[in-house]
Amino acid sequence: MGHIKIVGLVKIVGLVKIVGLVKIVGLVKIVGLVKIVGRIKMIGLNKIIGKNCILLAFALILLLSTANASLLVNVSPKEPGISALSLYLDETGQYEIEVFNDSEISATNVMFKISTGEGLKLIDKGSEKTTISTIIESIEPYEKESFLVTLKPTELSTNNLFVYVDYGIDEYTNLSATYVLVEESPLQINTSLSKTALDTGGEGTVSLSLKNMGTKSIQNIKAALIVFGGLETNAGIVTVSSLAPGEGYEAKEFLFIADPDVTGKVPLLMQIVFEDSKGIHVIEKYFAVEIQSRETILYLIAGIIILLVAVAIISRMRDSGSSKKLEKLVEEKPLEEKPLEEKPLKGAVK
User: Fold this and answer.
1) What is the pLDDT tens value at each position of the chain, 350 positions in all?
2) Nearest 10 degrees: Cα torsion 81, 84, 88, 91
C-alpha cells in the first residue's frame, strides 16, 4: 500500500507541473485553500490518496477550469505627470481607466460602473450624468484595455470630489477610486438661455459675457455654441485675443433654430477655451431646450377648450334637471291648507 501511495502522489505532482503550480496557488487564494484542507483532514487525507488518486487529480483539474481571470485596474489622469485632476468650475477633464488581465485565462464580460458624488458630473453623449456603465467583452491573457471618462465639477468645493469605479467579471466585485480638486477660475463667465421651450422651427439665443477677475492676462479666448440633433446654428466662433486684469467682453448672442421635424428635449452647450498661467482650459456650460410641435400645442388647446365647454354644459344640465324636479315635486304635492284654530287668550272673558 505504501508503494501505491507514493506512485499516486508522483502522478499528482506530474499533473501539477503540467497545469502550472503557480496558478493553482493563485486559485487557492481565491477559493480558500485553508477551508478545503480543513475539510480534507476531517475525512482523512491519507484515505483519499490511498483509495483514489485519480479522483483527487480530477478535482484539481476541475478547479483550474473554473478559475477566474485576475484583473488589475488603474485610474489616472489622461494628462501624464499628475496624480489627480485640478479643474476650474465647469472645466472638463479626463481620467483614463486601464484594466490588465493578469492571468492565462481570457477575461470576458468585464463590467464597469463609474459614479460621482455631489458637485461632480460625468459627460456622456452630450448629457451630464452621475453614473455611467460600460462593458469590455473580452481581454486576452496578459493584455490590457483602456477607455476615457470625461467629467467636470459643477460646484465650487474646498473638499476633494470623488470618482468611484466599480468593476468585475459578470458582476461588480471590486472598487477603485480617485478624486478631483476644484479651483476658482480667474475668468468670470456668464451665460443665459433666452427660451427653455420652442415651437418646431422656432428661434432662441444663448448670451455670453466674460470678465478677467484675476491679476494676470488671459489669452487666446474662443467661444462657440455647440448644438446636437434637433437644433441648428451658424453663429460661428467668437475669438478674443486677450483680456487684461479687470477687462471684460460685452455680451454676445448666439442664435440657434429648432428643426421643424424634431420634437422633445434637446441638449446644447456653450464651450469656452482659454489660456492662463496654469495652461489651457475648456469650460462647458450645458443647456436643454424642449421642442414642441405647433400642431400638438393647438390640439392641446382645442382639447382643453372642448373639455371646459363639456363641463359647463353638463353643469347646466344638472342645474336644469334639478329645477325641473323641484317644480314637478311642488306640482305633485301642493301645500295642504289647514283652517286656523281659534284659541282664546288667557284671562279673556268667555
Assistant:
1) 444 343 343 343 344 343 343 343 343 343 343 344 444 444 454 444 444 555 554 444 444 443 568 999 999 999 999 999 999 999 999 999 999 999 999 999 999 999 999 999 999 987 899 999 999 999 999 999 999 999 999 999 999 999 999 999 999 999 999 999 999 999 999 999 999 999 999 999 999 999 999 999 999 999 999 998 889 999 899 999 999 999 999 889 999 999 998 899 999 999 999 999 999 999 999 999 999 986 555 556 667 788 887 777 887 777 666 655 556 655 555 555 555 555 555 554 44
2) 80
pTM: 0.66
Whole-Å CA distances, 350 to 266, 340, 342, 347: 101, 20, 13, 9
CB contact at 8 A, 303 and 207: no
Neighbouring-strand partners of residue 197: 290
Instruction: Give me the count of residues in the chain.
Output: 350
Strands 197-199 and 279-292: parallel
